[in-house]
Amino acid sequence: MAEAHQAVAFQFTITPEGIDLQLSHEALRQVYLSGLRSWKKRIVRLKNNVITGVYPASPSSWLFVVIAILATMYTRSDPSMGLIAKIQEHLPASGSMSMQCQTVVSAVLFSTLLWLSLIFTMKLCLKQLLSYHRWMFEQHGNVSTTTKVWVMLVRIFSGRQPLLYSYQGSLPNLPVPAIKDTVKRYLESVRPLKSDSEFERMTNLAKEFEDSLGSRLQWYLKLKALWASNYVSDWWEEYIYLRGRGPIMVNSNYYGMDFLYVTPTPIQAARAGNTLHAVLMYRRRLNKEEIKPSRIPGTFIPLCAAQCERIFNTTRIPGEETGNVHMRTHYVAVYHRGRYFRLWLYQAGRMLSPREIEYQIQRILDDPSPPAPGEEKLGAFTAGDRIPWAKARKEFFSSGVNKRSLDCIEKAAFFVTLDDDEQGMMGDDPAANVDRYAKSLLHGKCYDRWFDKSFSVVIFKNGKNGLNAEHSWADAPIVSHMWEYALATDSFQLGYNEEGHCKGDVNPSLPQPQRLTWDIPKQKQNEVKIAQPLADDIDFHVFAFRDFGKGSIKKIKMSPDGFIQLALQLAFYRDRGMFCLTYEASMTRLFREGRTETVRSCSSESCAFIKAFENGEVRKMRLIRNASEKHQMLYRLAMTGAGIDRHLFCLYVVSKYLGIESPFLKEALSEPWRLSTSQTPFQQLELFDFVNHPDYITCGGGFGPVADDGYGVSYSLIGEKIISFHVSSKHSCPDTDSHKFGTQIRKALHDLLQLMTINQSDAAGSEQNHSSKTQNKKEL
């Protein structure tokens, strides 16, 4: 009750003379300041919306157009060809204005219409220019005249200093590939994986589909592509993610790691203070759209930023309400030793300093109160099957104190776990401890993460941190961009004092973090099922490959990604004695609301090279070049909207809507991905200094295996000399072993580099000998 009295801005008492009001000037001042800050935010958002709306022009260009038109009229010429006079005739208040005033108002209206028309034209031109992708298929150093002109025009129409969402209105829509092209590419991708009879049967199914049902389904897709911004993304989110009934822990969520070799401070509360403050700094820049638009590395070509809108305050809801909560709040939900807390990160509109957040986190760590009955393992609902969670949510969390506490978690900016374990590269067996660190980030104890939140920050007892991210709302590069900023800001900008605490002063008058309360019925407490078997089944191996990196790969004139994909194919062939359908995640963010596309890395060319390499054939050099070029072609096709799998997926969705079964689509989309791979690119190298601070590197992140008898492999190219790998599989499969596969990856990388280096040396020696012979002939 004391807290309630302090929150009242005024008091009143009833006296014989009447009501006596006692206003609290400090409280009213805080109300005024809070409202002022709120209005400032609204003005900033309005300003950004205007700037983004008129991009690639600028708001000041309107004044230039108005002045130009008025100046032209002053010279007694009519640039509007009579339109200004027509506008003047139809002015609603012409009787109350002088003739000169009417002319000026008409000229301003005409100028505004002209300015808007020019903006529309510029946006349309930029959209057409960004639809040109032939430049991706041209060799370095052999750029066509068309591409050179295109580069010049894009630079002219791109404007200056774009905000985060400035390009959104100018990005082209994802095109729908032709049925025959998709079917042809699909058959090419499965040829090395099927016997002659199986391939012949699949070819017949494909031809039957192309000649009959395919064109009908394609018509609906083209209609959707005309109407919607992206014909794939909404269905992909709904049917692949939100309608999934299995556990999202391990199967869908993924994780990101801290620095591998360095822990900036061993104090848990201090690390939480800097980390949370850095994430809030990123959110503030995001809200102000001060983050630069993402681009294809090494180019000025923008990528779609639509996924950034849901980084914060987003929660995956189970059951019939499959969707996301999205609203702006200024607190986080914190879990520690079975208790849930609400921690406000703002006071009177001001962001708390790192030292203040550390102070508040320490209060939570020091709180001796026990969990309420059923509270400790409540998060297990979000880790298990979705149907039991949906039923429990509807029955026990739809009203009263449980609903209020659940709303607090789901509407929080993000989730924070203060873990009692110590993790990282430490102890007598640092390699095994890194593997345990990865498993902890992926699933924890199966109840101490809120897997439905867009992301959960995990702070371990020894100061190590990391995050777990839900997959439906966005893909890994979006979360990675935020996490890179948080890590760099934590260590290089905020820093710590000599004792390891956050810098700054403490405000002891901050209100206590609020314990969330629950009333879980006894019968429901016993029904909470922990998905521990799923977590225990995951076999993880994480390692940083430091023998060489992309710098050495570039010297042999190969694509680093293509080189690693070939190494993974070779490693899998040696591990299992066979080839498999391979998934490599690519992105389609060149298009509006684009997400991902699949690169089918196992091709006829890669299989031919691996067989030749293992058999010691002399033609392997020509074959590895063919395989590398094929991979690059497949990657470019996927990026430019000419992939295979998203098109087939959407055709399948349409067939389900129409109630028609397609044997071809059903079989094509049911084939298992026994090797699922993804590269997590470093996007903000300028934030890190690998020369002066070589130990401040993160090992990237990883995910669980897609197939029960397969591997999940995530890798990151860190600087010029390091490649990190996260390999996952399942203990329950006798044919997979993550550590054994990691050894095969290392060996494959060395073997391929040695092959290319020897060939390059032989080629250089032959060229030198040829040059010497030519010189001798000249002397003779």
From TrEMBL:
<dbReference type="GO" id="GO:0015909">
    <property type="term" value="P:long-chain fatty acid transport"/>
</dbReference>
<keyword id="KW-0808">Transferase</keyword>
<feature type="transmembrane region" description="Helical">
    <location>
        <begin position="50"/>
        <end position="74"/>
    </location>
</feature>
<dbReference type="GO" id="GO:0009437">
    <property type="term" value="P:carnitine metabolic process"/>
</dbReference>
<feature type="compositionally biased region" description="Polar residues">
    <location>
        <begin position="760"/>
        <end position="774"/>
    </location>
</feature>
<protein>
    <recommendedName>
        <fullName>carnitine O-palmitoyltransferase</fullName>
        <ecNumber>2.3.1.21</ecNumber>
    </recommendedName>
</protein>
<comment type="similarity">
    <text>Belongs to the carnitine/choline acetyltransferase family.</text>
</comment>
<keyword id="KW-0813">Transport</keyword>
<keyword id="KW-0443">Lipid metabolism</keyword>
<keyword id="KW-0012">Acyltransferase</keyword>
<keyword id="KW-0812">Transmembrane</keyword>
<dbReference type="InterPro" id="IPR000542">
    <property type="entry name" value="Carn_acyl_trans"/>
</dbReference>
<keyword id="KW-0472">Membrane</keyword>
<dbReference type="GO" id="GO:0006635">
    <property type="term" value="P:fatty acid beta-oxidation"/>
</dbReference>
<keyword id="KW-0276">Fatty acid metabolism</keyword>
<dbReference type="InterPro" id="IPR032476">
    <property type="entry name" value="CPT_N"/>
</dbReference>
<keyword id="KW-1133">Transmembrane helix</keyword>
<feature type="domain" description="Carnitine O-palmitoyltransferase N-terminal">
    <location>
        <begin position="1"/>
        <end position="47"/>
    </location>
</feature>
<feature type="active site" description="Proton acceptor">
    <location>
        <position position="471"/>
    </location>
</feature>
<dbReference type="InterPro" id="IPR042231">
    <property type="entry name" value="Cho/carn_acyl_trans_2"/>
</dbReference>
<keyword id="KW-0496">Mitochondrion</keyword>
<feature type="domain" description="Choline/carnitine acyltransferase">
    <location>
        <begin position="174"/>
        <end position="746"/>
    </location>
</feature>
<dbReference type="InterPro" id="IPR039551">
    <property type="entry name" value="Cho/carn_acyl_trans"/>
</dbReference>
<dbReference type="GO" id="GO:0004095">
    <property type="term" value="F:carnitine O-palmitoyltransferase activity"/>
</dbReference>
<dbReference type="GO" id="GO:0005741">
    <property type="term" value="C:mitochondrial outer membrane"/>
</dbReference>
<comment type="pathway">
    <text>Lipid metabolism; fatty acid beta-oxidation.</text>
</comment>
<feature type="region of interest" description="Disordered">
    <location>
        <begin position="760"/>
        <end position="780"/>
    </location>
</feature>
<dbReference type="Pfam" id="PF16484">
    <property type="entry name" value="CPT_N"/>
</dbReference>
<dbReference type="Pfam" id="PF00755">
    <property type="entry name" value="Carn_acyltransf"/>
</dbReference>
<dbReference type="InterPro" id="IPR023213">
    <property type="entry name" value="CAT-like_dom_sf"/>
</dbReference>
